[in-house]
Amino acid sequence: MSEVKHVLTTCIYCGCGCQFYFKVKDGKIIGVVPSQNHPVSRGQLCVKGWNASEFVHHPDRLTDPLIKEDGKFRKASWDEALNLVAKKLKEHADKSGPDSVAFFGSAKCSNEENFLMMKLSRAVFKTNNVDHCARLCHASTVAGLAATFGSGAMTNSINEFEDCDVFLVTGSNTTEQHPLIGSRIINRVKQGATLILVDPRAVQLQKHAKYHLPQNSGSDVAWLNSMMHTIIKEGLENKEFIKNFTEDYEELKKVVAKDEYSPENTEKITGIPADDLKAAARAFAKSRKSSIIYSMGITQHTTGVDNVKSCANLAMLTSNIGRASTGVNPLRGQNNVQGACDVGALVNVYCGYQAVTDPKNKEKFEKAWGVSGISDKIGATVTLVPNLAIEGKVKALYIMGENPMVSDPNITHVEKGLNALDFLVVQDIFLTETAQLADVVLPGVSYAEKDGTYTNTERRVERIRKAVEPIGNAKQDWEIICEIATRCGYKMDYPSPKEIFAELAELAPIYHGMDYDRLEKDFGLQWPCPAKDHPGTKFLHKDGKFSRGKGKFFAVEFKPPAEMPDDEYPLILTTGRNYFHWHTRTLTRRTSALEREVPESYVEINPVDAKKYGVKNGTLVPVSTRRGTITVRAEVTDRPKVGTIFIPFHFAEGAANRLTIDALDPGAKIPEYKVCAVKIGGKQ
Amino acid sequence: MQNLKIKTQNLIKLIEALKKKATVLAPQADEYKDVYLKAVSDPSKVILKHFKPLMPAVREALFGQVENMINFKKSKGNTKLSTVDESQETVLFGIPACDVAGIQYNDVFFGQREFADFYYTKAREKLTIISLACVTPPNDNCFCATMGHGPIAEEGFDLQLTDLGDGAFLVNVGSKKGEKIVADNKALFEDATDADSKKFEEIKKKAEKLPVGKNINKDKALGNMGREALNEKMMLEITDRCISCGACNYTCPTCTCFNVVDHQKAGEGMRKRILDSCILGGYFRMAGGHNPKGKRDERTRNRYFCKLEWDKEKFGDSGCVGCGRCLDACPVKIDIKEVMASLA
Fold first, then answer.
1. ipTM exceeding 0.90, yes/no
2. Where residue B228 falls among pLDDT bands split at 50, 70, 90?
3. Residue B89: closest CA among chain A residues belongs to which residue?
4. Range of the domain at B290
5. How far is A471 from chain B (nearest CA, A)?
6. Running DSSP on this structure, what letter comes out for residue A615?
7. Which of A3, A8, A58 has the CB atom closest to B263's CB atom?
8. Residues of chain A contacting B244 with CB distance shorter than 8 Å
9. Which chain B residue has its CA at the smallest distance from A600's CA?
10. Is-cis flag, bond preceding A509, omega within 30?
């Protein structure tokens, strides 16, 4: 008799970190049931969660290593493939120096896997060229909140939203991208809380918003400064808090109090009516439980770090920080983008945000790993690698679980970069658009086949558990990394992910008190958790004690986006996600219910613009920027504001990122996905 | 047949006995205190208190979220098909009356109409139902009494247990299968006394009054269904909140829609059916792109019509059994009781 086994694990999709049980029968997953006691899922899931298993057994899964010969892939043994990868990576590092090799970790992979990826890069290859897709989503948060508060993560916890009195949601389509957080906002508003939505699109939350302020994309510093202008002018700031717990307030005041940031003046930049802005600013400032929630609409700009700092300024100005149901809450997109950052798959920090430039840290890690000569130079980000490849500075690239050929800005340029490499190895579970360009493809395993941990958006480190055996000859991702390291002359060997986590906890102060036995007991622990008897941390910066000491105000001036509409390209293109798909659609295109919902790319265009440019609903239209042209189906809708069109970035066919601009924030190196100049028309 | 009674320690022995011949699915807690129906290995771990599992019982034993239907393989121009039959002797133990009613609905839908569903029928033949009546509502969302499907079932079970509160359960025998279980395990059962039967009647009377939602008049609500009745304002209000998770379908004991998907590679593969959701737009969209229910409020309305009107037309009773799971699993608390209350 075959019996159904239940295996508790963490959802692979967004940063909510819901947990559910896989129902497993005869080695196959036959269903998903949410955990009733888990603090986030509580017996509920979104549509992606309910359908989070179909792709696991999809026939497209990679089952064997592939080596490209004469432009075609052939199956290879693990030994052959791993030997080739190790030989090529080593050859390039030996010949052209450590920085000629680069590594991409993945926000879809576990903490343990990302930790090993950064260890491979730093300890074995002596380069800090290790990064991952946080560069594309919250690099500005990590930098901005670290500078202002001392910790670049969501300050509060998900369930605290159930007690908020005022929500300021900006650049977050919460009901679609963090559905179980979105539902908490809706439920709380139904109980009487006030929702301020600042978004150029009328997303679902707009129906629940008391104030919808549809700003012009890229004008965020202007409206945030204008809100602070109003608050200070009307004496609504918390002087006591500012005096006791913050610094550089006078610099901030000098800037935001300027006449150019009066609501009447910013209206010309932001498009937000002055009276609406003032009313919203008052509502936010007068409540003691105001919470800022933001996502890519704030971060994905050439002024991403400025935008984040401005959110932090607003929270400190009104003392809505360091208490329950307040704070600055960047919602992390991927299941483990918080974790991949925490464990140091970033160019400038080791695990636990310890700077690579600090000699003490270099010494610490050299000692821990038994090596010498670790680089203290900040490495090359995901967004800079294509250029460096074209310039011949990066020769070999090892990508684990990322798909820049769909996800990164200006794909045509990315493609040129990847093709300029001497050697590309991609580790994934499907033959993605990026894997197709690889010299060697290594089949890793899906989340259903592995043990490990993810860290959700509220800093909760949670277990994922192996439910089924690897498909075909696919191998554990952590084992692949160990094999490569060992073949490169550095013996990397662990009995299981548990021991990898123990090493991570040893080296990262914020994870120091965690181990698998503790994580096993409950539904995980929230960092910082510095000691074995520490219960974890629900919200950061308690009682005004900021991680960095005092909260730091940054006086930030408004700067326009890199490319604004003109006569030739008269509209603004903004990109984002759709509820039913996940990022580069590798998983969701192989999930029947999700793929059926949205089977092709589309462009949202306001009826006014549709009329002006002769676009009919449901027809295919060419859309062009200076980078390229795509043809997508038109959805004429009043969701986007007049002058702005929206295209989801999920689709390789009709790829929004053929159009996006690769202009970067100067500090965080995050691309400006949210604004570029576009026109309807052009030839593909 | 006269009512029987079984002592708690004998009930555990009964599970032990049943387990020898079948997979017994019964509510048990895991290390995270989550309770669900799972195969019994240690009968003493079974929760012998009335309980509403998150997923309806029908999903665990008869019509699951993902089911394999056909394996196929192409060779030399021929395609070899083999029907998958994964049915096995199963006992659903300790399920509530709403789940019994849900299975009765599915029995009609899948088994007693023009076409009998192969997979369902096979599994159903091998299924035994030992239900456990709810003497108090498992949670505030329950309204089975309003819908006439509990909290103590009248039919649809093989055996029904009701906790008499004194270390014993009253046993109703509901079928030949149930009689056989009693006959095979005679030593474990005893005759209920008049006092036991009286106590059972009292428990029943009390339990029926308890569930919330009792103030809704079902007949009046169903009688008032009509295209105008579910007013646009109410549907739009629901739609504004709905985050299209599909849980109201996935957890509903009487949702029977599935999608058929082929997973194939190089002429070899598997046909599966996957539990579907009518809250999703793709459910209705036609091949040419036209969608007769393209808006969410239209689909919301459709769902209520399906449950409260068309099921009644087709099968004589509403499809809603009052289990409240659509509300339990709804992240934004959309409440079918409120919809019904607006009609009555």
1. yes
2. low
3. A1
4. 2-343
5. 14
6. P
7. A58
8. 47, 579
9. B289
10. no
